[in-house]
Amino acid sequence: MLRRTVAILRRSAQRYPDGHRLSFYRAFSAWIDNVNRSNLLESTSEDLDVEKIFTNSEVQKLLGELTGLDLEGKIFASRRIERQERSHYALMTDNMFAQTVERMKEEARHFLQFVPIKEPRADTFTVLADDKEIAGFDESKFVFTDVTFDVNDQDRTVVVREPDGILRTATPEEHDRMNRVYYQQPNRPIFEPPLFTYPHLQNALDRDEHEFVLDWACYFYEPDDPAFVKLCRTVYDRTVAEKKFSLLYSTRHFGAFVFYLVLNGNIPPLLNHFGAQGSLSNAAKLIRLQKIVHRNWRMAIGSEDDDRKIVQDYIKQNLRHKAELKDLIGLLEGKRRASSPSRPVAQRRTQLSPPENVGLMDEQSLKSEEGPLGDLAKTYTVRVARSSFDGQERQESKPARTGPGVSRRKGGSGDKRQK
């Protein structure tokens, strides 16, 4: 049976343009909800190339601006890791602090690289042969996996021999499971973790662990796995239903989440969230993004239109969503204060800077529990070591003695005074 299987695979390889690697057929529009298809724009009557649109430079730029850059609250916030690290404190000048913040921003942008939007592989298989003469040879299936060294996981050939004699290609779930069997990785079990199934998934979302679920899903699944697409849509829909946009804001998942809402024409909840945050610019960027994705959308946006005009035109043309846009309408009417534009780091205090009421770093503040040492200042004896430079600086800062009849003249190894 093994020889016959190998011969069939060789003949099948000639039928595929990629040599011995069997290609997968992809489904289409898996990111568009069929239930809400009636809510989509008129321009979505034709099929959209989701992958091509997502990688568009204009789309990527707007998604990056909408994602934000919350350094202290999200990107570099405390996380549960295997090995805990102690906080590091450093004394810096204003220029050093500004340069450090810029370096941290560059590093943060690396962590905010978007999760790719891929159409899932079709959850089907291709029958390669039907050998009735070996039907009933065994009660179990035989899985044949290509373990060639230079073959990657996506293009690896995996075929299954059924007990009835049918030789077929593996389904996406079988294909990825065989990859996990032969090429194991830490925290990547062979079978799907219970976290991704009911009721464990619902319990995790109830605890607002949306980011944790999506992070593990990106590590466990391939981007074009049908189970990954289904899981992402479940988390995204739950986020919109509960209006917990801040859980994904300034994470690597926010861009794909916003793109999912735009594809399905479901941006009013997020627009209202930006209105509640006082961010009129983000609301206008979201409307621009929808216009780029849906080119034939009836709303026209001029190159000279400012943010306020874009938002006002959207509300006028979508009065059916007026009840969902109360906070955004209140922002336009002046009932909410718009967020102020950002200023240069050197001219303002950033989120990484200490509060305004914190004094300078001195001996008293170091010995107090409110200082950087915290409870350690009470547990241990704190001593401040002074260098010779401090003594020289204090000596130079003393005022000179002046008075009637007193003059100073340098000479020899010291000063001489004469009356």
From TrEMBL:
The gene is MRPS22. GO terms for molecular function: structural constituent of ribosome. Pfam families: MRP-S22. Keywords: Ribonucleoprotein, Ribosomal protein. GO terms for cellular component: mitochondrial small ribosomal subunit. The lineage of its organism: Eukaryota, Metazoa, Ecdysozoa, Nematoda, Chromadorea. Residues 336-419 are annotated as: Disordered. InterPro entries: Ribosomal_mS22. This is 28S ribosomal protein S22, mitochondrial.
